[in-house]
Design a protein that fits this description.
Elements (H helix, E strand, L loop, with lengths): L3 E3 L7 E4 L13 H12 L3 H4 L2 H4 L5 H28 L6 H8 L2 H31 L7 H21 L1 H29 L6 H11 L4 H8 L5 H14 L16 H30 L2 H6 L3 H9 L3 H23 L1 H9 L18 H17 L2 H8 L3 H16 L15 H20 L1 H12 L1 H10 L3 E3 L3
Antiparallel strand pairs: 1-2, 2-3
Helix pairs in contact: 1-8, 1-12, 1-15, 4-11, 4-12, 4-19, 4-20, 5-6, 5-19, 6-7, 6-15, 6-17, 6-18, 7-8, 7-15, 7-17, 8-12, 8-15, 9-10, 14-15, 16-17, 18-21, 19-20, 20-21
């Protein structure tokens, strides 16, 4: 029987059983690694492929910029909420730990349950397939070959992260730096060598003129005639494009001075991504007509075609590079949640084992890689991921609510405080729950199936509790 330790959960009233572990997690993640993880996991492929999800509902220069700015600001709100919680609980597991501490082990378990089966492994599988599809531009890959390439990428990056968190974070940092440099070059070359698209000067002038008009005319001019509902649709798409910002919190125990490093990395990383997104869209609008941006599913390539005349190879290489770096960060982060859950007795103890010499949760790393590979090979990640991914926003909203609950405990130490409290966490919670409501209204059938899958974790949790791993605390 594993040894027992009292839970630090003030509200749950539970006694948590810890597995026996070997080895120790190593503190090898520094500020630049953590910042690179934030930037690298957010910037995947969508900003290079299909910003039409933003420009379609809001067909204007200023409107698109406003969507990206507001999405970046709301993401920053979520990031600073997570930053305060990370400074309070610098433990492996991040969001899982915050939900466990604010509410109960059950809520934390449901986050980890959805993460492993669909949300986290599903996004690994989805991005790996995007990587493979664009790799096929350079290699003769049929659909089966693409699946093999995606699995090879997942398992290779799992192996790198198995070797050590230093190796994994160094690789992530290198790919992120190169990715940002490529984006800066694209922005610089686009403005320096590109020719303004037909209609660009007149549309920009019209939108500037609208600023001095009445409120209704100003809104119509700035948003291209879009309604507030259209703006919200575009904003939800923008927020999904910022996905992954929270993953740096999973590695807190391996981060040097995590109480200060993670808040700085979250803030700086989100600001860098927001600037990149706005600047890239400015280039797209500068060299391409509005209709081309709205209708394109390969906008980076079309922009490169407009500037240099050979966008296919450029865009494919950029997406391959960007997605590989994003997979690296996501593979690095996830196993720390399963490690934390195993340490708390919520899943099999062997998933909490730390390699005695490499200092990594090696079994959790390989199990994650294998399941993500199964999702790739079977193609099931498409249905699972699209049904469940919106549910993470329920947990994000709960995380923000949890901040209010945890602030009531005067014994908790925090080295970082959310600015403009309580407005910032309240606005983020409302936006998170708003995304969920919007998804349920838009597609109630798929939404209920996704939520139902997450709730399947409830009986699993209680079945696990009956085995004696989680016991009610005695007075």
């Amino acid at each position: 029987m594993p040894g027992c330790r009292p839970s630090s959960t003030a509200n749950s009233g539970f006694f948590i059983v810890s597995p026996t572990t070997s080895g120790k997690l190593r503190k090898d993640i520094r500020h630049y690694h953590a910042t690179a993880m934030v930037v690298g996991t957010i910037i995947g492929a969508s900003i290079f492929v299909q910003p039409s999800e933003i420009t379609g509902p809001v067909p204007s220069l200023a409107g698109a910029a406003l969507v990206w700015l507001v999405a970046g600001l709301l993401t920053l709100f979520g990031a600073v909420v997570a930053a305060e919680l990370a400074s309070t609980f610098p433990e492996s597991g991040g969001v899982y730990v915050y939900l466990r501490e604010a509410f109960s082990p059950l809520v934390g378990f449901l986050w980890g349950w959805a993460m492993f089966w669909t949300m986290h492994t599903g996004i690994i599988a989805a991005i790996a397939m995007v990587f493979a599809r664009y790799l096929a531009y350079f290699l003769p890959l049929d659909p089966s070959g693409m699946k093999v390439a995606a699995v090879v990428a997942i398992l290779f990056l799992s192996w790198v992260n198995y070797l050590g968190v230093k190796q994994g974070s160094n690789l992530q940092a290198a790919f992120t730096v190169a990715k940002v440099v490529a984006i800066l070059l694209m922005i610089g070359v686009g403005f320096a060598l590109g020719t303004p698209a037909e209609g660009f000067p007149s549309q920009a002038a019209a939108e500037l003129e609208a600023l001095g008009s009445s409120a209704a005319a100003s809104r119509a001019g700035l948003l291209g005639g879009a309604s507030p509902q259209d703006f919200l649709v575009a904003l939800v798409a923008g927020l999904f494009a910022f996905g992954g910002w929270h993953m740096v919190t999973y590695n807190a125990e391996e981060t040097v001075d995590a109480r200060k490093t993670i808040p700085r990395a979250l803030t700086l990383g989100v600001l860098v991504v927001t600037a990149c997104y706005i600047a890239l869209n400015a280039v797209y609008f500068y060299v391409l007509p509005m209709e081309a941006v709205i209708g394109s599913d390969r906008v980076a390539a079309d922009a490169a075609d407009a500037v240099m005349g050979h966008g296919g190879a450029f865009m494919s290489a950029l997406v391959v590079f960007s997605t590989f770096g994003a997979i690296s960060g996501i593979v690095l982060a996830g196993p720390r949640v399963y490690f934390a859950m195993a340490r708390d007795g919520l899943i099999f103890p062997w998933m909490g084992m730390v390699h005695p010499t490499r200092g990594t949760p090696h079994r959790a790393i390989w199990l994650q890689g294998l399941w993500a590979s199964v999702l790739v090979l079977t193609g099931t990640y498409r249905a699972l991921f699209t049904r469940v991914v919106y549910t993470e926003w329920i947990f994000f909203g709960l995380m923000a609510v949890g901040l209010f609950i945890l602030r009531r405990n005067p014994t908790l130490r925090r080295d970082y405080s959310v600015w403009a409290y309580p407005a910032v966490p309240a606005l983020f919670a409302l936006s998170a729950f708003g995304i969920v409501v919007n998804q349920v209204i838009t597609d109630p059938g798929e939404s209920m199936m996704g939520l139902g899958f997450v709730l399947l974790g409830v009986p699993v949790y209680y079945a696990w509790a009956r085995k004696g791993y989680i016991k009610e605390r005695t007075p």
